[in-house]
């Protein structure tokens, strides 16, 4: 598990350095927003049908 966390930390640091070096500071922000949107969509895809089935 520690290997994966180190890899995630290193990748995040590389992405932030890229944004700072190129002036594209918005790129890491967009990636985080897209990831959050994908996570929200996947969650809603499961939760909404389950709630509808349970309630009705």
Quantity of strands, as a count? 0
* Percentage of β-strand residues: under 5%
Instruction: Estimate the helix proportion, in percent.
Output: over 70%
- Number of helical stretches of at least 4 residues: 2
| Terminal-residue CA separation | 41 Å
Structural class: mainly alpha
Shape verdict:
elongated
Notes on the protein architecture:
The protein is built from two helices and no strands. The longest helix has 30 residues, at 26-55. It has 56 residues and is mainly alpha-helical.
List the keywords.
single chain, 56 residues, mainly alpha
Topology record:
Elements: H1 2-22, H2 26-55
Produce a short descriptive summary.
With 56 residues, the chain is mainly alpha-helical. It has helices spanning 2-22, 26-55. The chain has two helices and no strands.
């Amino acid at each position: 598990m520690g290997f994966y966390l180190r890899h995630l930390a290193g990748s995040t640091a590389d992405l932030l350095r890229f944004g700072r070096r190129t002036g594209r500071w918005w790129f890491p922000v967009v990636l985080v927003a897209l990831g959050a949107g994908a996570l929200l969509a996947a969650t809603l895809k499961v939760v909404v049908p389950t709630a509808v089935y349970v309630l009705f």
